[in-house]
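Practice problem 4.
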């Protein structure tokens, strides 16, 4: 058996045998319920339901990729940082003295679980909107291909966000600090960047995620995918250097 695969399986076991993924799943269910409530009870200023009257409107409402990137970023930050808080990184690095290989396995595991949670969240949102639409005068108008794109974009954005958060968690090594760092990167820094340079608006995660989901056209889809990946890989690369140079605890 490939040693790296053994490490990844061990990391997946650590992630899936705790309550944390279930807590995030509950949050996703709540978000989908809020979305359904918005369709059922929400109206435009004139009292109409025009905000769900077209396929584009419905697709925009269901586009979950931006939320997936931010939510998975918090997931990855907590998942990795708590390993230092609980001391579980010690046996991980003892098992694999090559720390960078162990770190890569951990990042791959959080990417896989983060991407899966994000895709599930997108699926719940799609189902919530589909079930709520019969209460309006409009049916479900989004083609199957666009639904698949929403799910795929959310899964990819979730995986990337989890890697970003995991990188922050490995650098900060404190759960509270890692969450704070992820919030700074995901929520506070992008608006500040847009204020400093208007051109940056096309390259912040929320904009890139809407492009991937098919509801934005600020940049091309391949460029959006590469940029989202860059947002994730830069913190991950810093983490790989940090774990090699610093003491484990």
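Answer key:
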């Amino acid at each position: 058996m490939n040693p790296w695969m053994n490490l990844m399986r061990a990391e997946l076991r650590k992630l899936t045998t705790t309550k944390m993924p279930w807590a995030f799943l509950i949050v996703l269910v709540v978000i989908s319920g809020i979305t359904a409530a918005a369709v059922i009870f929400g109206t435009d200023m004139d009292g109409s339901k025009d905000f769900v009257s077209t396929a584009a409107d419905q697709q925009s409402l269901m586009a979950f990729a931006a939320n997936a990137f931010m939510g998975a970023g918090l997931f990855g930050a907590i998942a990795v940082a708590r390993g230092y808080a609980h001391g579980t990184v010690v046996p991980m690095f003892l098992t694999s003295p090559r720390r960078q290989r162990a770190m890569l396995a951990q990042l791959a595991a959080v990417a896989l679980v983060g991407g899966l949670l994000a895709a599930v969240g997108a699926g719940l949102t799609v189902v919530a909107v589909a079930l709520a639409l019969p209460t309006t005068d409009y049916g479900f108008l989004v083609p199957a291909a666009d639904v698949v794109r929403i799910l795929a974009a959310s899964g990819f954005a979730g995986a990337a966000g989890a890697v970003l958060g995991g990188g922050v968690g490995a650098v900060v090594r404190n759960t509270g600090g890692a969450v704070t760092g992820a919030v700074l990167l995901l929520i506070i820094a992008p608006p500040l960047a847009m204020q400093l340079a208007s051109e940056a608006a096309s390259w912040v995660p929320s904009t890139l995620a809407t492009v991937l989901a098919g509801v934005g056209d600020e940049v091309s889809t391949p460029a959006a995918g590469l940029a989202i990946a860059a947002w994730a890989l830069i913190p991950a690369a810093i983490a790989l250097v940090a774990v090699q140079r610093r003491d484990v605890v």
